[in-house]
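re: ur question from yesterday

yeah so i grabbed the chain u mentioned. its 398 aa long if i counted rite. heres the sequnce exactly as i have it in my notes:
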Amino acid sequence: MAHGVFDHEVLEAIDKLLPTLRERAQETEDLRRMPDETVADLQATGLFKLTQPTQWGGYAAEPVIIYDAIRRISSACGSTGWIAGVFGIHPWHLALFDQQAQHEVWGENREALICSSYAPMGAGLKVEGGFRVSGAWRYSSGCDHAQWALLGGPVLEDGGPIMVEGKPQFGSFLIPKSEFTIDRVWDTFGLAGSGSNTVLVQDVFVPEHRFLSFHDMNDGTMPGVRVNTEPVYRMPWGTILPTALSTPVLGMAEGARDIYVEYQRERWRAAFAGEQAKQDPYITERVGRVSSDIDASRRQLFGHIAEEYATLLAGDEVSIETRLDARRDQVRATQRNVAAIDVFMESAGAAALAKGTPLQRLFRDAHAARVHATHEAEKVYDMYGKYKFGLDPELIMV
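ran it thru and got these structure tokens back, copy pasting raw so excuse formatting
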């Protein structure tokens, strides 16, 4: 399959790396984390600089480029593609923080990697000058390789949450590796190589400049955009993060299609009078029908990103309608691509079930990715429908 959709030096470097990532896919799964060599290779491509501000040596690139990079990597190895999505977007998030926080990370190390767990599995108690943070944040993908962590939670005061406009103040605490430990409990049937272990924090002081509330991100008052003026940092959070987690599933589906076609090209079906599988009209029909869904999801995901970015380049704000459209199609893309892989898997024959074969690995990885909270389609469809009917939906990450 020709991978080229966009041109960028990082994408060219990634294409050269893909055969190596395919070869390491089983090793990645067996290690239950990315090999150190893969981390170094990905850093060498410039992948993690795509969303890093230019003031810190990054590209601040057109955002569709990072998603195309994630797509390509995921076609070779689902776990590596998942980490590419997670680590690839975090420089964008850090760019929204106070300049002092950025300096503490990138002033020391412009190659720093950042893991996360945004679910409220801990909290920060407001104290003078900052917060005392404690918690156990599960499912922090790639945390073994990270120098910093973005950990989500509410801000507490006197035992209760601080309220902002009637809702608890919630955001991300930025914490260095020296102040958290890792409980290596990740042992799963899918995305096994993502190393999504538990990050433990016990009564760590986090200064105010290393906290960013989601309220500020939603209303565009992030301190970082006063310095990082590139338009990418005005992209909606509710598009940026979910798309980073849907695009790996898209890449997995494209990888599964390539594997399926190549396998069926050479397969003979002795049970059916020695017929070649590629001559079976049901095989060719599946490829045609499912490819349409895969390609449609790519066009929707990338199309929304491009539309929002063009709006920002024109000096306008991205409307809630546009953001809702993007969120709706983000969950739909994940559903389509998981279903596509299911079609390939169910008709690939018993040989595809063997441990170590790439199709069954991508099948398991895609189903594991599907359970992430950003892919809860019914909630998003309900939110979209209520908005269209003029009702008052609870906006979930838009």
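noticed a couple things. The domain at 114-226 is CATH 2.40.110.10 (Butyryl-CoA Dehydrogenase, subunit A; domain 2). also The longest strand covers residues 130-140.
anyway ttyl
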